[in-house]
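Supplementary notes for students who missed Thursday's class. We covered one full example, reproduced here. Read the sequence, then the structure, then the short commentary at the end.
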Amino acid sequence: MSHSIPLSRSTATRRRAYIHDAEHYLGRIASILTHTAFVILVIRFFILEPGITDGTSMLPTIRDNTSFIVEKISPIVVPPQRFDIVQHIEPIEREKILVKRIIGLPGETITIKQNAVFITPPNGDEYRLEEPYLPPSTIIAVPYRTRHSFELAENEYFVLGDNRQFSSDSRAYGPVHRSLITGKVFALVLP
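Structure (token representation):
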């Protein structure tokens, strides 16, 4: 016949305390992991988004296969500015996400002529846009049989790729509404 030896009260109490501490510790770890995952998801979907360029439309500023970060808050809070590099949804083919430079602002008229971009502000005089980031040999033209002048309405922006000869941009698909601009682009590897 076997007899069990009763545990002393202090041993049983310590064992229960140990199990309680372990459960509490594991609960804390689960809570920390859940909160961390939540913060990462909020940052990823609402504040910063990683990306990689696919194409040469922003040469020489951003090369093909360049990693970048899209900062999503400032375009919501502050209107995009001329020369900002932004990520936007293509207005015609909405499944396309593109990276381009803002050239024209709401209310302006953008005209492409004489191998240059000309801007006419509301109630202002036309002037030639200086673009020092472009190589001197850059050819700035519009596709054959398309318009050369674009009037921008409220909340519309004119975007161009820096590689003007090999970029599908506002010259082809027209102005981009502010609601289609998803964020400012910051290249992680510069040329």
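Commentary. Helices lie at 9-47, 74-77, 170-173. The two ends are 84 Å apart (CA to CA). If anything here is unclear, bring it to office hours.
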